[in-house]
Amino acid sequence: MVVLLASSLAACVTDGGDKGEMVYTDDRGIADQPFPADYRAQILAFLRTYLNNPVGVRDAAMAAPAQRTVGGRLRYVSCLRYNAREIDGSYGGVVQRAVVYVDARLDRMIENAGEVCAGAVYAPFPELEKLTR
Asked: Distance (Å, rounded) from C-alpha 36 to C-alpha 78?
């Protein structure tokens, strides 16, 4: 039974190429990705659980999703800046994150977003500053 399950899961995973990463879809980065129309709601839902304290976020700004190459694949990416409260209530400073979408759904957040978000045009994101638990 265990061998059957392992072989079934292995069939779903493809080799990520020369980077040694595992890919769970057949997408090799050349397929057109759909635009994530509800990206704002997806980000807010994610950050509500991602942040230690989602209340009182300051200096929130976001760039609308744009197609960028991430890991050799063309993806829609939203760039985000915010200053969230730490567990002790203090503010740790503004951070920059990249939110990556696959098939119009939030896939992951990149914490070191410098290169991915280079040249992004930010606009205020007041919904993030009004976030509650």
From this structure: 10
CB 74 within 8 A of CB 33: yes
Beta strands across the sheet bearing 105-110: 105-110, 95-102, 73-85, 53-70, 123-124
The total of other beta-carbon atoms located within 10 Å of residue 3's CB is 7
The per-residue pLDDT for range 36-82, each reduced to its tens digit, is: 999 999 999 999 999 989 999 999 999 999 999 998 899 999 999 99
3-state secondary structure of 10: helix
pTM score, whole prediction: 0.76
**Cα–Cα dist 3/74, whole Å:** 35
- Name the token pair of 28: 């090799």
Q: Burial, 80: exposed, middle or buried (Cβ in 10 Å; 0-12, 13-18, 19+)?
A: buried
Q: How far is CA 65 from CA 7, 17, 96, 111, in A?
A: 37, 26, 15, 17
